[in-house]
Amino acid sequence: MKTALITGATSGIGYEFAKQLADRGFGLIVVGRRVERLQELKESLSVPVDVIKADLNNQQECFGLLDQVADKDIDVFINNAGFGLCGKFVETDVNREVSMVQVNDIAMHILFKGILQQMNKAGKGQILNVASSAGILPAGPYMATYYASKAYVVSLTRAVDVELKESGSGVKVSALCPGPVDTEFNDTADVVFALKGISARQCVSEALKGMDRAKTIIVPSLRMKLAMAFQAIVPMPILVKLTARQQKKKMD
Asked: Could you name the CATH architecture of 3-249?
């Protein structure tokens, strides 16, 4: 039986990845802070599920997680944990922003590198770093730190993908870049999406299909694909202003 490791599996996209990978016959290692939710997930599935409690806002717990899975044969890693924050940069809470960078970037980086090294030794595996369509855009006024944090994920994944291909590695890496998804993200970020979100089920289904095709950048939904194509031809100053207008709507 193949094994998938999923961080941020207590809700939303991570929870849905667990369900859909279980449907594909994967055994799971699920990671999160809310153990009771992970236990509920475990009891709802018919495949083996190992539950690991970890707060990825803590670097030592990130390295501790790598130690706990060092002897596991991991076939798929869904590097999903993360959250957002909306508001004027001059007003948003710096401690919350630092926590966001810690989870979205530092924890993502530590786990990406550690699991990649483990997979590279084995000569196989797939890693999906969960980014955002925000990471493809040049900037996001009123969600400035979140957009910057997800740009880091996209940039890192693209670069590592080229390195792995040039070295002939059997490991494949991808970045998932969805637009709005109907999850608890909205409440955590204190936002109301200006655009209608897709379901977590659709997002994950398209993500897995993209991984099956070894796509580096995966953008779920036709609407977001068209939006990303549109942004490529719009001058950056205009695009940033248009993004600002959409982000402002989230604070209404």
From this structure: 3-Layer(aba) Sandwich (3.40)
